[in-house]
Amino acid sequence: LIIDTGIDMENRTLKVRSGFYDYVPKHSTTPVPVPFILLKGYWLRTYNFEIGNAVSVQAEINQLILSVSNP
Q1: pLDDT in tens, 40-49
Q2: 54, 50, 32, 33: which is closest to 41 by C-alpha?
Q3: What string of DSSP letters covers 39-67?
């Protein structure tokens, strides 16, 4: 199922948000915010990011590259 939203999904601007882990580490008594990026939507299917696919992340300074590991 591919839904055409009419929005350019090839070029997106996202914001790094504040998030928290689901647990508090033993060395901390209060939750500490961590950087958080959310990607979701039907548009991911257009680029073969299907539910259940493994995704590899290549991290470099100022850049993250996401690739489907098992298309």
Answers
A1: 988 899 899 9
A2: 50
A3: --STHHHHTT--TT--EEEEEETTEEEEE
Distance from C-alpha of 45 to C-alpha of 14, rounded to nearest angstrom: 18
Tell me the three state secondary structure of residue 8: coil
In order of 30, 31, 42, 65, 67, the CA distances from 58 in angstroms are 30, 27, 23, 5, 8
For residues 41 and 51, is the Cβ–Cβ distance under 8 A?
no
- Residue 67: closest CA among 51, 49, 50: 49
Which DSSP state fits 68?
A: E
pTM: 0.69
Q: What angle do CA 12, 18, 22 make, to 5 degrees?
A: 115
